[in-house]
Amino acid sequence: MLNDENLPDRVKALLSYLHTPFLKIAFIDPGFFEKSDHPARLLLNSLAEAGSRWVGNDGTQQYDIYEKIREVVDKVLKELDQDIKIITTLLLEFNSYTKGIVRRQELMEKRATEKAQGEEKLREVKLRVNDEIRKRTHNRELPSALLLFLLQPWSDYLSFALLRYGENSDKWNNALI
Fold first, then answer.
1. What distance, in Å, lies between the first and last C-alpha atoms of the chain?
2. Helix axis angle, 85-137 relative to 39-54, nearest 10°?
3. pTM over 0.90
4. pLDDT in tens, 105-132
């Protein structure tokens, strides 16, 4: 872990405090070395992964993750005794916290993608509406009041009808008449 270049130094320093408690766990529970899914090993891996994912080498962090890692380390240092149940509890709590972060990130990414897709769809609709208006007004002398009507309310209504109901709908087709 200390040689991992992806793990920021301040997280390495913080996790190094777990050296002695994890040695204690290794003496208490021989499964620590035998099981790759031992709760203490999983906790350490989760802390290191979160640190490398959300803490920058420049000291920046996202989602207050450094403070959350520090809380876990402090609890291990203060509450670990002969019973290592605290490790399992901390693992569950920390993983729940990081899963919440991942869910929020996925939701934000989904919303950003939907927003970009919506903006692209609106741009396409506006181009289609402008083409329809141009087809109907091409080479015609129209009073300025009528042009303003075509470019504002009718254009907006056509865009709404196309977005909401689609190009095969009666609303769209009737709006073009």
1. 70
2. 40
3. no
4. 999 999 999 999 999 999 999 999 989 9
